[in-house]
User: Fold this.
Amino acid sequence: MIWTNAIIQGLLTGGLYALLACGLSLIFGVMRIVNLSHGDFSILAAYGVVALAMHTNLILAIVLVLPVMALLGYLLQRGVLNRSLSKGALAPLLITFAFSIIIQNILLQVFSSDNRSVQSGRFASMSFKITKNLQIGALPLFTFIVGVLLTLGLHYFLTYSRVGRALRASSDDPGAADLVGINNKHIYGIATAIGLFAAGIGGVLFGMRTQFAPSFGPIALIFAFESVIIGGLGSLWGTLIGGIVLGIGQSIGAQIQPSYGVLAGHLVFIAILILRPQGLMPKQKGK
Amino acid sequence: MSLLEVTDIQAMYGELKALFGISLSINPGEVHSVIGANGAGKSTLLKVIAGTMPATSGSLTFHGNDLSKLAPDKRVRSGISLVPEGRRIFSSLTVEENLKVGAYSRRKGHWNLNNIRELYPLLAQRWDRIGFHCSGGELQMLAIGRALMANPDLLLIDEASLGLAPVVVAQVYASLPQITSQGTAVLLVEQDMQQALRASTHTSVLLEGKVVLEGTSSKLNKEAIKRAYFGIEGRA
Assistant:
């Protein structure tokens, strides 16, 4: 029973990792940019909600912060990152590294290094009793559902919408996308807007579960990265599966010995890299 | 007024000059073929018109408006579509999705998914196949179909028959009259001289980045074309 419990809790945690990771996966998939500041944007959104929630209620704070994240993503892509794309693979990497440092230091200035959390009141401690030994927390369950819904939503957007198809076309061959009338710079802006919107959702839910400080971005980034790699680069469903595998790995590790949780997650990641370096659900050839 | 007016265009690849002052004009609904040997500048000319390569001098007007400052995606919106060398089909997208992406610019007109299916029945049979798995002929039809989905006023086709089986080439050429009957002009780059002359109303022969011969396709003298094509000096 304790193992079933560990697996279920890990599965639910996986939903959070998928949320932190799906924007990273999308940005890499479309532009081949490795966004080293992805976790910091998640933490930035969490701080944004903390600051706004002091003046208004939590729901409104979240509803206000997420579109701002999307707008920020669009502006950073069009204003900064697009200019770096023609300058090799290193330039965008360095720029997102710079974003990471800038965000961490701004947060440190404004909010100090004290730990904060996004207060969700009773919701954070609510749970459903399934059997005598198995309880499911409302927040982890909600996070998991949001993770699945966001992946599903992105899937439908990319598969069936005009802009979604343009994103995939642009990812396949930006030069040919130009020739059918697609403005790649605009499309890249949209990709990053969606990416940071998703990072924001992940960050806020992360902040409801645990305390965080300005330096937590890179930790969120590592979990996101591992989810993307375990699942297979460029595949959204893979990223969800990757997050779940990482979550289950961590919770089984923690079941063996509470301090082994994170370590066990890394070991699962390394094992996948050795045994199946293309990830569990890699993009098909030509896909 | 002609649809496209190209006047004294020059273009360079780095230090290397590729076009030495090319002029031509195209009217709505006509097929204009550009023939010439490898390296004569045919594809370069199409790239300059589509906007993927800048002209260093000369002027380009389309519907009477200056094109030179427009990015390639804006030129599609104004009505110029290029079927590029190598087709450049989106390999992870299905045939249907490639066609839908072709309509990204939302230009109104005759061409839609149904009409493309009728134009190229072969594509209808491959509807859900991804570009990566299509054959050369399917790719060429798909590339033309994708360009038509933007309902262009001017369709640029680079190397229409290169690397294709004769059956497929015949199908591609057989579709041209249906395209021009919608008022679309076609600028065709072709290595196969006979094919180009048969399909076009006007022909320009390029040699080393210059137009060395041009005229109505049916009235051009075959011997004169051969000499122009290979750059052989001699009496006319």
Chain B has a mean pLDDT of 93. Chain B touches chain A at residues 50, 52, 71-73, 76-77, 81-82, 84, 88-93, 97, 100-102, 104-105, 130-133, 146-147, 149-150 (CB under 8 Å). Chain B has one domain: 4-230.
